[in-house]
């Protein structure tokens, strides 16, 4: 039985599909991935190129080094792909999957740049987004009422008719 995964960027301009297994799902803490993600780590998994297809739009690419390029949505900036410049290898960002919880990381890379307090953060008490009236000073009701984020599934067209997203 073959695995199927779909995903894309936040605005829906770039969508992709993987019809096969995701290899070595991992968290990369290296400084280059930190900068590319704008985060403390980047979750990635390798894909067989024969199993991978862009189903909507085209990603933009940035050569983060001579042998490596990073694919992202030029419209909304979502990091999507990590690939070698020869076109022989590619990985997808696990957070861009429609069902990111379906892929559990099995390894960690770039531990030389791992934040020394990351285990403490994971142990902190958490709360849901809905538990707050405001998200960084903006009323959550306004965010919900004007959400332009693509849903976590394929759509025939995007943005939807009548949407201003």
Keywords:
31% strand, Metal Binding Protein, Guanine Nucleotide Exchange Factor, Chain A, 165 residues, globular, 7-stranded mixed beta sheet, 12 strands, mainly beta
Quick structural overview:
The chain is mainly beta.
What does this structure look like?
With 165 residues, the protein is mostly beta strands. The protein starts with a strand and ends in a 20-residue tail after the last helix. A hairpin with a 2-residue loop joins strand 11 and strand 12. The radius of gyration is 17 Å and the shape is globular. The strands form 3 sheets. It has a 7-stranded mixed beta sheet with strand order 6-7-8-9-4-3-10. 12% of the residues lie in helices and 31% in strands. It has a single domain, classed as Metal Binding Protein, Guanine Nucleotide Exchange Factor, Chain A (Beta Complex), CATH 2.170.150.70.
Q: What is the helix content?
A: 10-25%
Strand order of the largest sheet: 6-7-8-9-4-3-10
Q: What Rg, in angstroms, do the CA atoms define?
A: 17 Å
Low-confidence stretches: none
Count of helix runs: 3
Going by helix content, strand content and strand pairing, the class is: mainly beta
User: What is the residue-averaged pLDDT?
Assistant: 90
Terminus-to-terminus distance:
37 Å
* Beta-strand content bin: 25-35%
CATH T-level fold name: Metal Binding Protein, Guanine Nucleotide Exchange Factor, Chain A
**The level-1 CATH class:** Mainly Beta
Query: In total, how many domains does the architecture comprise?
Result: 1
Largest sheet: 7 strands, mixed
Query: How many strands in all?
Result: 12
Specify the CATH architecture. Answer: Beta Complex
Shape: globular
Order of helices and strands: EEEHEEEEEEEHEEH
